[in-house]
Amino acid sequence: VLGLLVWALIADTTYYLHAAYGWVMFVSIFFWILTILFFVTYLLQLQLKFYMIPWPLVLMIFNAAATVLYVTAFVTCAAAVQPTSWRQWDYNRRAAAAFFACLVMITYGASTFFSFRAWKGLGSNAATSQVTDHA
């Protein structure tokens, strides 16, 4: 949802007049589409059919790449916001897009952390940690 807000807010401005926003649009739409594809894959449990793919590693690499590229998109978006713009609505939308790009960057960063823990096998939940074998 946050990624959708980033590219929707940018798309509603005159982004084509500023080359910097082309990069922000590419990053936000590209990772939004890939995130939706991963979500549908896990929702339909298709990862179980492709068991030969190391899904925790794939998700960790995806989230790490998304984090790094969203850092560049956030910095680009925030640096390109011009408060003296003659179009006040463009300024507001671009500033909001920079804010949401920062939130998406933080979210992907947290997902990278949790994906790393899942990949290393460090993640457990209360149910699995309470199970004991009393045979």
Automatic annotation (TrEMBL):
A molecular function GO annotation: structural constituent of myelin sheath
Give the transmembrane ranges.
Answer: 20-44, 56-81, 96-116
Topology with respect to the bilayer = Multi-pass membrane protein
Q: Source organism's superkingdom?
A: Eukaryota
One Pfam annotation reads: MARVEL
* Keyword set, alphabetical order: Cell membrane, Membrane, Transmembrane, Transmembrane helix
Q: InterPro entries in the record, alphabetically?
A: MAL, Marvel, MARVEL-CKLF_proteins
Entry-linked PROSITE patterns: MARVEL
Any idea where the MARVEL domain is?
1-120
Compartmental location: Apical cell membrane; Myelin membrane
Q: Which GO terms describe its biological process?
A: myelination
Its cellular-component GO annotations read: apical plasma membrane; myelin sheath
Tell me its family.
Belongs to the MAL family.
Q: How does it assemble?
A: Forms oligomers.
User: This protein is called what?
Assistant: Plasmolipin
Q: From which organism does this entry originate?
A: Nyctibius grandis (Great potoo)
